[in-house]
Amino acid sequence: MSKSKNTGGTATADLLADAVSWRHQLHQHPELAYREERTADFIAAQLAQFGLKVHRGLAGTGVVGTISRGSSRRSIGIRADMDALPIREESGVAHASSNSGVMHACGHDGHTAIALAAARVCASLPDLDGSVHFIFQPAEENEGGGRRMVEEGLFKLFPCDRVYALHNWPALPLGTCVARDGAMMAALGTFEIRIRGKGCHGAMPHEGTDAILTTAQLVSALQSIVSRNVDPQQPAVVSVTQIQAGDTWNVIPDECLIRGTTRWYDEQVGDAIEERISLLARSIAGGFGCSAEIQYQRRFPATVNDPPAAQFTREVARGLGLEVLDAQPSMGSEDFAYLLHAVPGCYLWLGAARPGENPGLHSPRYDFNDEALAAGIELWVALVRRSLAAA
Ligand SMILES: [Zn+2]
Ligand SMILES: [Zn+2]
Prior knowledge:
Layout (H helix, E strand, L loop, with lengths): L12 H16 L8 H14 L2 E4 L6 E7 L5 E7 L26 H16 L6 E8 L7 H7 L2 H4 L4 E8 L6 E3 L3 E4 L1 E10 L3 E2 L9 H12 L1 H6 L6 E9 L6 E2 L2 E10 L2 H21 L3 E10 L2 E3 L1 H13 L3 E2 L11 H7 L2 E7 L21 H15 L4
Parallel strand pairs: 3-4, 3-5, 5-16, 6-15
Antiparallel strand pairs: 1-2, 2-4, 6-16, 7-14, 8-12, 8-13, 9-11, 10-12
Helix pairs in contact: 1-3, 2-3, 3-11, 6-8, 9-11
Bound molecules: zinc ion (2 copies).
């Protein structure tokens, strides 16, 4: 596959032009988790026009489009995420967000356009035997829309032998992909610690108990978890990302709020992180005369590929001329993990780097690279063809 505008194979110039246009429309009208109503309407209308059977309502705004052919019970799922992020766009592109403060900064507009284009091609294939379900999922960012779809019966309504998803990866060159056996993305936890002390005059600190000083000690101590409690061979992250306290110069506030995120692969490491955060918060707060209220949530499990599905994905990618690279797993997280817990499959990264300045995912200057559309479309179509080829 060429690294630029590929008009051979299934991604014809017409199809690519439509995919770019859909991607730009989606980018211009981004919607946050579980509010992807306009997006879902657009997807459902397109799928119906291509002749797919359309189901709506899983996890609220979820859409599933199905093509069934022949008599085989074989079936696969292709998942795309639809949600945007609460970021004020600074990309400066003509199709920039018209929804102020909301932005497709993770390229889910590209994933959706790729899946739509692949659905259109697959609907016109005469030689399939089995079913393919195109799964458009809400609320990937933080909120676990994938989990809700599975809990609400995604794979009971639409049984899949295997399920696949891709993420555009701006750190990888165009024309490349990564589909590892096993670990791809880390498990994700969040914590919120409320340190309660006793507020007082800033000039008379001995009359209160200082929640801010306690917080400062705790933030430092939390950094001992990865360095002192986790096996150095095991990946782990503990990051404090928010601290909120106080309103003015001369008042020591009553309380301080600390929030942050944790990542791991090994479940024992996940247990150790959770336990240590709680113990450090309670004991340091106690030592300084404060109390700590801790809320810890394990949000996403690790995203782990089924090795045969990953190998199949790599074979299909190589067959299209994509360069299959090796890479370390990411400490980012992905709620496709829940789909992979229910059904074996593969999550892959698709190269999407731009020449020159190449802002990363979640940057206010990020815009999905349309040059990556062709590779994504051809990969999904080839996976469907190979999985459901008529005997
Ligand atoms: Zn993201
Ligand atoms: Zn994403």
